[in-house]
Amino acid sequence: MAGKARLPFPAVLYRILLHFAVHGAFQACRCVQGAQHRLQPSPRLDNVGFAYRCRSSARRRFPNRHAARKRLAISGSAHAMTAQRISAIQEGQLQPMFGGALEIPSPSPTLLIETHRGEAGRAYTRIIPRHVLTLFLEPAAVWHSADGASTSHIFIPANTVVMSLRGRSESVLWLDPAQVLVVEVSDRALAEAAGTLFDAQSFELMPSPGVQDARLSALLQALHAEQVSGYGSGRLFVDGIEQALAACLVSRYSTRRPKRRVRTGGLSPSRAKRLVDHIQAHIGSPLPLDELAACAGLSSSYLSRAFRETFSVTPHDFVLDMRIKRAMELLAQPGNSILDVAQLCGFQTQQHFSRIFRQRVGVSPGQFCREL
Hints:
The protein has 372 residues and is α+β, with helices and mostly antiparallel strands. It has helices at residues 9-38, 56-59, 65-80, 187-197, 214-228, 235-253, 269-281, 289-296, 300-311, 315-331, 338-344, 350-361, 365-370; strands spanning 40-41, 52-53, 87-90, 93-96, 112-118, 123-127, 132-136, 140-146, 152-156, 161-164, 169-174, 178-184, 208-211. It comes from Bradyrhizobium erythrophlei. Keywords: DNA-binding, Transcription, Transcription regulation.
């Protein structure tokens, strides 16, 4: 001890402070690096952004993280459940007929439209709560049984329509994979069609495992094309297809065929004027068929027929013509962009507006503006 030189007190204190400063900086770097490894994106909350899972060292710092995650998960689930699904009773529970996410929901709350792929080997027994039409976009083969009847092997060509009737039990085994378009038709639309075509709204559809009906197939193919395009034509187009589907089903596949009720004439002048005024005042809105029917004080199915008799076009075509007419007036005014005009006239996208404008006018909106 006597041979060693002692440092003065200030130098000792300086070394001690330097040691703690270096050690603290080193620990801080390790904490940052550890945190970067511990923070991982969680796929469980894709609908609400990224959630991060931390290890036990961070749990003490965030005691309420489980409650926050639960609130986010509930919020994301509620958002995902807003779109209605075509459902069936399977294994005692009401659940979607086909699994998988719904890419683009139908713009109509009464005509549900979904596209799915049936996989070979998939089997199920279910009860359909509402009438469902299935258009096979590809050929397929299935084993099928309805209401406990004997099972039969059915080959289904492409463009075949299969009717699943409300309240019936069916068992299906897919033998081939196939892409299908599934459509749920509302009882209200069918009842309105029966009330318009016949003297009574009561009807019963015939069981049809598979039918080759060019009219039904064409209507469902039009729905499929509209779905692929993102429903660019809007809800009014889908409403028109729904009325046509209901009329076709009731007139061709009903077990009871009451005496047809004869109707003459179209809309009265006052009703026609009221409709035109309503369309002009709400040209930027979707203008669904039930809204027009309520304006006229008629059922949707009767309005479709009476409207065509009065104006010689369907409500959808009439509204499109009025939208294009209004668009031409706005494009003639300086300062209006094509996108603004499309939105003001009720078109969902500029691309859809340009396509319809070229079809009706013969030139694109840009060329129309340049030629003014």
